[in-house]
Amino acid sequence: MPPGSLPTKAAVLAEDDSEDEDDWYQNVAQSAKLIEDVTPDFIGFQQHLLKMNPHLRAVNHEYLVDRIAQHQIDRYERLLSLRVKHHQAVAAGNCASESMCIALGGHAILLHPAMDDLDLDLDGNISSLGGTVNPESVPPDIPLPPTSSLPAEVECQLCFSTVGITKPSDWTKHVHEDVQPFTCTWEGCKFTGMFKRKADWVRHENEAHRRLEWWTCDVDDCGHVCSRRDNFLQHIVREHRFPEPKANPSSVMKLAQRINWDLTWAKVDQCHHKTTNVPQDEPCRFCGKTFSTWERLTAHLARHMALSSLQVLKVVAREVLDKVTIIDPITEPPPVGPPNPVSFLERMPSPSTPPGLLF
Ligand SMILES: [Zn+2]
Ligand SMILES: [Zn+2]
Ligand SMILES: [Zn+2]
Ligand SMILES: [Zn+2]
Ligand SMILES: [Zn+2]
Fold first, then answer.
1. Residue 35: how many other CB atoms lie within 10 Å
2. What ligand has the least distance to the C-alpha of 268?
3. Alpha carbon of 176 to ligand 2 centroid (Å)
4. How far is the CA of 177 from the centre of ligand 5 (A)?
5. Cα of 122 from ligand 2 centre, angstroms
6. Residue 35 binned pLDDT confidence (cut-offs 50, 70, 90)
7. Least confident of 221-225, 246-250, 259-263, 353-357
8. Pairing between strand 119-120 and 149-150?
């Protein structure tokens, strides 16, 4: 926004929007409804995304709809195949999770909390043993693990490998690893993969596309460009023999060393460049809202993506029975079904908002 001009109404609304948990729960409920009759193919996932985000059609972000729909198919096929394989292992009675296999009547193994995780009161007594994982301790679109007590080792009901969980965020991280919810949102991007971790996705978009900051080496017309400070530091130390700064400078460091060290940092600062773009120049591709910081913008974009990607879990849970009957028509489905699809669906709040996602 040019200095002195008044903020637009849309900008004010975006600033006031705190994206609180209530809105998020309503969005999750809304998207849960929208996935109900989706056919798990390219067109089905395209339509689902457009229904969730009508703005995508209005701004003609066809590349993004296609890219996300393709990723949704990749996720769907991977998770479905893991489920079918697990079903076959269970039918043969040899699931690798052994006593933790839920379908074979097993259960999570509760672990002793590490000393670091114990809360000790003033007298040194243990005031809490481990913790719990419940609908309040993970984001609303994350299915619950097959344990409520932590720490524990469980059989994940999405990938069917065993996972150690010390705190609720370990579980959220694991679900994100299984689903890989994040996709680059920039047109023309050469990277076609999905991102498991939000931080990696943010770094990719910021470094490859937004170019928020960079370092251009000006030693002897070198011109080498780095998008990370650490890499630039390494460059001037290795290529131009600048003294390497130590992590913990000693107080008795020789004056000459200290001067050299300052020279290195001065060079890093001197070569540093920052974008002149502002976050308001980049309205959210999914809904058009603008944000005052890059952090808020990327956090918001990530929520849009997680919201639609995680819906694939419901489609997998729904379709798996058809698949296992086709592949394995003699075997009955296991008597004790995996609990997650049920608990996942049950924990969805009933939709109380009109169509259209809030954020
Ligand atoms: Zn199993
Ligand atoms: Zn898993
Ligand atoms: Zn990209
Ligand atoms: Zn250089
Ligand atoms: Zn948005």
1. 21
2. 4
3. 9
4. 23
5. 39
6. confident
7. 353-357
8. unpaired
pLDDT at 12: 37
Ion ligand 5: residues, CB < 5 A: 284, 286-287, 289
Go through 2-32 and write b for each residue having 16 or more CB atoms within 10 A of its CB, e for each that does not: eeeeeeeeebeebeeeebeeebbbbbbbbbb
Mean pLDDT of 353-358: 39
* DSSP labels, 151-186: SEEEE-TTT-SEEEESSHHHHHHHHHHHH--B---S
Beta-carbon neighbours within 5 Å of ion ligand 2: 156, 158-159, 178
CB neighbours of residue 242 within 10 Å: 20
pLDDT in the model for residue 228? 92
Q: How far away, in angstroms, is 155 Cα from ligand 1 center? A: 7
Question: So what's the pLDDT on residue 59?
Answer: 87
Where is pLDDT greater, at 244 or 11?
244
Nearest ligand, CA of residue 222? 4
Instruction: Look at the pTM and tell me if it is higher than 0.85.
Output: no
Rounded to the nearest angstrom, the distance between the alpha carbon of 235 and the centre of ligand 4 is: 6
